[in-house]
């Protein structure tokens, strides 16, 4: 089972790049991902000898780093060495290898403990259709608290899907935040406080309806609804909840606007004090099951993993494959019953529990029959 098949990591051989690589390896180990490295050289070097020396040095360094990743037990792709515009080449390579995630570094840490997002990272976020993971310089990626702002758009749905799975995989708490704009004006017949209270109630209803499409069973999460300026409230909530990772859509509605990268997203990612992942049209994590598994034990263990990580329907499918191999496989019957119980499907829960009981009874009868036959033979 793979959730995040391919990661493209952009490196420039600096100390900051070493930090990005270290965190990329840690992330890849969690999701059993393949890492492909990319480095960009300038294409305006007229001196052929200098250009060749740079290429040789960069190739050697890329291969050394690639080997160090292999030594960590991870799968690697062929390192990519490109010439030209850094942003265009990195974004293009992510599309070419069909990466699930593109990891880059951020700007440097400032004296007041804030961060300045580098212009290159910001350009990549703007141009990339792939999810982009920006690792903050100097921060260890020990993810305990994740925050995901949503505005009920398609883009925020992608963000929340990924946030839920990542939260399960790293055993982190997830805060799902939604912000509605305040009504600020007072007119003779209108009370701003009453209008905002009505907006709050309506927004909570919409929020609740939005969340019904997501699997939150057994997830360590809380929801927050705030009124006011979206970017200010998102940043405030990040600090209050001590979030280690922000996951958000870069386009959308209600503040996370419909243009290429909305003003809210732009302000948040420039000021956010933690690492973050931005998404447009694709989920970071996509479930991919290996089709070559043959034996019942592997299917059963996979079913247990899927169940643990909240992929309930997929776990049922794997349990049923076990039953196709052996229709009397009691652990799978009990496993299906447990999944349906989590889903609140009482009819199917009862059905599979009764099936397990009947199989147990049949096995017991067969055991007794065999014992009787042994006694007769004596």
Task: Give a short synopsis of this structure.
This protein has helices at 15-31, 48-71, 86-96, 119-127, 154-170, 192-211, 230-240, 263-271, 296-308, 312-325, 330-342, 346-377, and strands spanning 6-10, 34-41, 80-83, 101-105, 132-135, 145-149, 173-180, 221-227, 245-249, 275-279.
Q: Could you characterize what this model shows?
A:
- With 378 residues, this protein is of the alpha/beta class.
- It has 3 domains: 1-140, Rossmann fold (3-Layer(aba) Sandwich); 142-273, 3-Layer(aba) Sandwich (Rossmann fold); 297-377, Tetratricopeptide repeat domain (Serine Threonine Protein Phosphatase 5, Tetratricopeptide repeat), CATH 1.25.40.
- Helices cover 50% and strands 15% of the residues.
- The protein is built from 12 helices and 10 strands.
- It is flat and about 95 Å long.
For the sheet with most strands, the description reads: 10 strands, mixed
Instruction: Give unreliable regions as ranges.
Output: 253-261
The number of E-state strands comes to 10
Continuous helix count: 12
Order of helices and strands: EHEHEHEHEEHEHEHEHEHHHH
CATH top-level class of the largest domain: Alpha Beta
Beta content comes to 5-15%
Strand neighbour order, sheet with most strands: 3-2-1-4-5-10-9-6-7-8
Q: Which structural class do you get from the secondary structure elements?
A: alpha/beta
CATH fold-level assignment of the largest domain: Rossmann fold
- The total tally of domains equals 3
Radius of gyration in whole Å, from Cα?
26 Å
Name given to the CATH homologous superfamily of the largest domain: HUPs
Please bin the fraction of helical residues. Answer: 40-55%
Instruction: Return the CATH architecture of the largest domain.
Output: 3-Layer(aba) Sandwich
């Amino acid at each position: 089972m793979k959730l995040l098949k391919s990661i493209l990591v952009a490196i420039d051989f600096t100390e900051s790049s070493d930090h990005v690589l270290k965190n990329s390896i840690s992330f890849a180990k969690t999701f059993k991902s393949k890492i492909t490295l990319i480095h960009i050289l300038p294409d305006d070097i007229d001196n052929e000898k200098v250009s060749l020396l740079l290429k040789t040095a960069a190739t050697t360094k890329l291969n050394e780093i690639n080997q160090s990743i292999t030594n960590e037990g991870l799968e690697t792709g062929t390192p990519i060495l490109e010439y030209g515009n850094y942003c265009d080449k990195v974004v293009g390579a992510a599309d070419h290898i069909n990466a699930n995630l593109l990891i880059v570094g951020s700007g440097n840490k400032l004296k007041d403990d804030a961060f300045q997002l580098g212009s290159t990272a910001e350009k990549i976020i703007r141009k990339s259709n792939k999810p982009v993971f920006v690792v903050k310089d100097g921060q260890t990626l020990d993810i305990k608290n994740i925050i995901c702002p949503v505005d009920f758009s398609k883009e925020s749905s992608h963000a929340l899907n990924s946030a839920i799975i990542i939260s399960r995989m790293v055993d982190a708490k997830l805060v799902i935040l939604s912000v509605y704009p305040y009504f600020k004006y007072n007119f003779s017949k209108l009370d701003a406080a009453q209008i905002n209270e009505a907006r709050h109630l309506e927004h909570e209803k919409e929020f609740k309806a939005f969340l019904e499409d997501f699997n939150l069973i057994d997830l360590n999460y809380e929801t927050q609804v705030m009124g006011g300026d979206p970017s200010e409230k998102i940043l405030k909530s990040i600090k209050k909840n001590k979030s280690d990772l922000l996951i958000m859509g870069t386009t959308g509605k209600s503040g996370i606007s419909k243009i290429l990268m909305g003003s809210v997203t732009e302000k948040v990612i420039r000021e956010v004090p933690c690492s973050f992942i931005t998404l447009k049209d694709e989920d970071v994590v996509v479930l991919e099951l290996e089709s070559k598994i043959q034996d019942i034990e592997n299917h059963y263990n996979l079913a247990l993993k899927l169940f643990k990580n909240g992929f309930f329907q997929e776990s049922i499918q794997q349990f049923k494959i076990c039953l196709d191999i052996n229709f009397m496989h009691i652990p799978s019957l009990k496993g299906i019953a447990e999944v349906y119980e989590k889903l609140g499907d009482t009819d199917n829960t009862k059905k599979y529990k009764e099936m397990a009981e009947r199989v147990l009874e049949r096995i017991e009868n067969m055991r007794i029959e065999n014992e009787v036959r042994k006694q007769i033979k004596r």
